[in-house]
Every structure is written in structure tokens, then in C-alpha cells.
Amino acid sequence: MKKCSIILAMFCFLTSVTWAEPPTWEFQTAADLSAWVPNGHLASVEVKDGIVHAEAVGWDPFFQNREVTITAAPWQYVLLRIKADRPGLGELFWSGQLEGQYGGLSQGKSVGFQVGDKKDWQEIAVFPFWHTEGTIRQLRLDLYNEGRFEIDRIAVLEWHKGQVTPDNSFSWEFNGDISSWQVTPDIRNLFAPPLRFEAAGKKWVTVQMKSDQPGLAAILWAGDQEAGLKTEEFEIRGDDRLHAYNLNLSGNPSWKGSILALGFRPPDRGTISLQSISVGSEPSGPAELEVTYFGFENGVNRAGQTCNVMARLTNQGGQPAALPEMKLQVPSGIEIINAPDKNEKNLACGDYTDLIWQVKAAQPGRFPITLQCTGPAAPGPAEVTLAFEKSLHLPAADYVPPPRPIHTSLDVCAYYFPGWEMPQKWDCIRRVAPIRKPLLGYYDESNPECVDWQIKWAAENGISCFLVDWYWTAGQQALTHWFDAYRQARYRDYLKVAIMWANHNPPDTHSVQDWLNVTRHWIDNYFNLKTYYTIDGKPAVFIWNPQGITHDLGGSPAVKETFEKSQQMARDAGLPGITFIAMGYGFTPEIAENLLGEGYTGTTTYHEWGKPVGQAMTEQRSQFDYVAQNSPAAWREKDRAMGKLTYYPVVDTGWDSRPAR
Q1: What confidence category does residue 251 fall into, taking pLDDT thresholds of 50, 70 and 90?
Q2: pLDDT category, 117, cuts 50, 70, 90?
Q3: Rounded to an integer, what distance in angstroms lies between the CA atom of residue 115 and that of residue 123?
Q4: What is the distance between the alpha carbons of residues 286 and 64, in angstroms, rounded to a whole number?
Q5: How confident is the model at residue 168 (pLDDT cuts 50, 70, 90)?
Q6: Half-sphere exposure (CA, 13 Å, Cβ side) for 271?
Q7: 416: closest CA among 359, 499, 341, 356?
Q8: 85 and 148 in contact (C-beta within 8 Å)?
Q9: Contact at 8 Å (CB) between 264 and 181?
Q10: Beta carbons of 471 and 460 less than 8 angstroms apart
Q11: Do 279 and 204 meet the contact criterion of CB atoms below 8 Å apart?
């Protein structure tokens, strides 16, 4: 868990105080700070003129309050008035328990917030949606290192006094005036007055708005079955025209039970005018077609060869839409070989159709093309510049040509997820992100020839090893087909492999005997590969969830004893041992020391984005340039925290999880 250290055990238990109304802390005197206890990573803490002053001098600075008794409601929020000398990320932890691991706190009961780069007072609203907890008995306000802070006020408030509206229409007309949904001025997230409705009967949310810039907006909600704020993001068009955006939330696993709060987050740039928001059983608004993809169908396209240009038309409106008349306009030097037939079918809301033109370029180069559409609900012109590469004039090959590897001074390992062994597995990519069609096409990775292509391209681009996601739950395995194909691959000697055990196991499915069984399986079926990747001469195994093993085996001493049995099994098989690498986030120096004692020799992560991801104004969106610039600082920070464990830095290539949903 991020930022929860054993220092919590040092705080004495204080008698709880119950408020008839949610509490507010104004810090008028030093006594007012007694409830909010600073930890040892905060220095120069004092109350002066109604302001708490503090300086962060360690990696995990926080104030903790274990004197609260708050009857939790979904329409509560925490308003923090704060000033900081530099921007950063804070976090609010909350819990109904005072005992247990990390003193009753957990990462699942927390919400992050961003302190902006202005050095003046800021009012930050944190929406925990902690109602499933029943009663809140402790709060913890986490700040960030190397900052000076002033806190004027911490208040737990309720919008609209928590009174559920009697209006059952669940349709709101704004006409540009959003004041009825403003919880507090200058706070970006907007929320409807308190409400309640069943998600099963209202799966469509329709937002009608216009914006002068493209961007990303989101529908927000909270339900009675899960804590925390839930979001569904959607792209908006920046043509300053009114559009209806229909979101079908029935596929979102958190849209269930009773919905208790509904909100809207506007984009972080441009000028918008919000017309209306409605919730219902059907989409609404007129038919409206949009070109949601326009470009090459395949990745590499060469002059002198027939290439496919694809346009995807999607009906974003509430009513069915007939396909318009379409014409592809190309410059001289581009020949249209074939055009799609006229399609008479109608598209329902959210449906799409893909249309293919076959074209040929006489010479390599970059060529602008335009798609013109006419008719009812037709989209505006779509434009793209196509890059045709020079033809290599290579003869046809009977098989994958032999790799020509390059050699590097460092081992470069790539995570590999083996999830693409059948055509239907690619449907998520086809549907959501056709631009991500692989250069190899929608391949079958259970075919050794496919794996040979992967080996060739990896070796020729400096990849030394694949760390392959590997699944075992109490002896049950899944997605082993890639390793099976790798064993049959002609060029397997060019690429090393290692297990990245993705032990997303349910609780209590690890055991000592299961651990010994999995060790035997590794020794008999993987470590005997001459290309199995080693660290310090020992076969390496990367463990995605070391905390799960510690929990299920009953603590670190039991893990240490079990790991020693694994090491002996490896030595008995003629191996020098096994190198175990722990994976995870938020490893503190204390956790690193425990991992070292359990038998791990190193740590790494599955991703490393640095701080920009958390600082992105729109949730889960960040510029990759920021990630590239800030990752080295994150590597250094993790390396320092890991002590005697070797930290292996992750160079992230980006992440887009939309197709997986």
C-alpha cells in the first residue's frame, strides 16, 4: 500500500468525539492541531495566526486524525484550504477501523488530489464516496516530500445537505448555466443534487454540449455497492457545435445497484457550453455520424503496391443513421484501384461500419487525402496524410528470414502478455482501436512461425528477453500457448525468456505445498530451457504480487522458510538456485527490508510513469513526453528506497487499456 508505514503503530489511541454535523477544523490555536498528529517526516509544525505551518523532510509526510466519528454519506466531501511552495500529489486516507494492517488503513480507502503550481491559497475538494464504510473513525492527510505547506482549514461538508431530490425525471437542462451542479465554486467536478435510481433500468447517459476545442470529458458516479468515485471518459469534438454524446454504461462493471451520485467533469481546456444531461433506458438525440478512424488499414505501406485505406463511420447520435454518399479525394500520383460498394444499412447508436478503398502510389512520399460525405447526419470532411515507404523489392520467402541480432551492453527485457491465440481475442482492438492493428496482422501467437517473427524483430531491435505473463492458481494454469509455441520456434536461441508470475490469485490460494508444486513445475518445464533468463547465474522469476504470497503463507518468516525450500529444490536439480524479483508499487524502505528478509534479491514494477500520470488534470491521461522526462527521477527515488535490493528500472512504452474494457 502506498504511503502506509509502520510508523502508524506509534500513535496512541485517543477517545473519539462524535459530531452532530460533519466536523470542521479551523486551527485557531495550537490545541486545535492536537487531533491532527504529524508524523516524523514533517518538521517545523506550528499553528500561527490560524494557519498550520509544516515542512516535509521525509518521503512519507502526513497528518493523522484518529479522533473522528463521522456517519458516512455519499454526498460528503472534504474541503482543504492549503498553500504550498511547489505543486505535487496528496492523498486522503480514511477508514472505519483503527486496528489491523497499517493501522486499519488501506490503499483501497483513499483518494488522491493535486496541489497546483500556484503558490497562493487553493481550495481543493476531495470526493471520497466513503459511504460503504458506515462510520469514519480515522483520516490521514498525506502530503509530499520537499515541500512547505500552510493549511488554513479542513472541513467535511455535504452538498445540498444530503437531501435526495424528489424529482424522478433524471434529466437536467443547463443551457450553459451549471450553477445547480456546482458543489462549490471553482471546483472542476460537477455533481447533481443527491439522488437515487437503479442502474439496471437506466443504462444510457446522454450529454449535450458544445466545445471550441477537442478534449476529454467524463461522467462521474457513485453506487451503493462500492466505495470511491467511478468514471466513464469520452472524447468531445472541438468544432463549437452542439453534439449529443450517448454513453452506454451497462458494460461498466461499476454501473450497478443503486446510483447515489451523478456528476460531470468538463475537459481541462477550451470553452464549453453544457446544454443538458439525462439518464434513461435508451439513447437520445438525433442521428449523427462521425468518422472515428481514417487512415491505412495496415502498418507498413509501400509505393508500387496495393494498399488499403480504411474509414470507420460511427453513429454517435440517438436515432438510427443511414450511410451517406462518400467520395475519396486523392492527389496526382495516387490511383484508386477499388472503392467500397454502396451500403444501404442503417447504423444504430454506437454501431459502426468499416469501408475500404484500395489505392496505389506511383512513388514513395507523403500524400494528403480527403473523405467527403454528403447526406442526412453526414459528418464533415475527414483529412489524413498517408506516408508511402520505398519498395524494398524483396523476393518472397518460404519462411521467416533468420534474425540479424544487434548486441547491447545491457540486457533489455520486455514484458509480454500471451493473450492473442484466437481471432475473437482481437475483437477488442478491431472495435476500439483499429490504429493498433499489429504489423504482423491479427496474428495467432500459438503458431511457432508467428513467434519466430516476434523473435526476429525483438533480436534485431535490441530486446534480449521476454518476461512472459504466466498464470498458475492452485495448480490451474492459463495462457501457456505462447511458451508451447516458443519451444517449437526455429529461432528460439536468439531470445531468452523468463516467467513473470501474474499471481492475481484470489486470497488464500497460495500455500506452502502449492509453492513447492509450482517450484517443481518451473524446474521441470522452464528452467531446463537453455535460453531461460538468469540473474547472477540463477533462473529468474518475477513475482507480480509478493504481498499476496506473504498474506496467504502467514507472514514473512513463513515466506522465508518456503523460499529456502525452493532454493534447495533448485540446488538438488543441479541449479545454483533461483533469483526472485518482487514487483509492485509503493514499496517503502520498511517493505523493502521485509522483502529482502523473505528471500527476494531485487524489485521492479510493471509500469513506471513517474509523477506526471497522477498530476494529469484528466484522470488516467498524460502526455508520454512527460513520462519520458520524469521517469529517471522516479527510478532514482525507487533505487534509494530499495536499500540492499537491486532495483530494475522500467522504461515504459505507454499504456492504453481502452480495448481491454
Answers
A1: confident
A2: confident
A3: 9
A4: 52
A5: confident
A6: 4
A7: 499
A8: yes
A9: yes
A10: no
A11: yes
**Range 227-232 average pLDDT:** 93
Cβ neighbours for 623, distance < 8 A, ≥ 6 positions apart:
612, 616
Q: What is the pTM of this model?
A: 0.81
> How many other CB atoms are found less than 10 A from the CB of residue 242?
13
* pLDDT score for 543: 98
**pLDDT tens, position by position, 284-300:** 999 999 999 999 999 99
User: Cell 443547463 belongs to which residue?
Assistant: 174
* Contact in structure between 635 and 604 (CB atoms under 8 Å): no
Q: Are strands 17-18 and 68-71 parallel, antiparallel or unpaired?
A: parallel
**What letters, b where the CB count within 10 A reaches 16 and e where it falls short, cover 212-230?**
eeebbbbbbbbbeebbbbb
- Distance in angstroms (rounded) separating the CA atoms of residues 151 and 124: 11
Q: How far is CA 538 from CA 140, 495, 521, 573, 579, in A?
A: 43, 17, 16, 12, 6
- Count of positions (residues) in the chain: 661
Residue range 352-379: mean pLDDT, rounded: 96
CA dihedral 70, 76, 77, 79 (to 10 degrees): -70
Query: What does the alpha-carbon distance between residue 232 and residue 217 come to, in Å, rounded to a whole number?
Result: 9
3-state secondary structure of 323: coil
pLDDT-derived band at 617 (thresholds 50, 70, 90) equals very low
CA distance 549 to 643: 22
Indicate the SS3 state at residue 656: coil
Place of cell 489491523: 100
Whether the CB-CB separation of 359 and 378 falls below 8 Å is answered with no
**C-alpha distances out from residue 533 to 289, 417, 483, 539, 576, Å:** 51, 17, 14, 6, 13
Angstrom distance (rounded) from CA 626 to CA 607: 15
Whether the Cβ atoms of residue 297 and residue 310 lie closer than 8 Å to each other = yes
Taking phi first (over 0 means left), then psi (-120 to 50 degrees means alpha), and beta for anything else, what does residue 462 get?
left
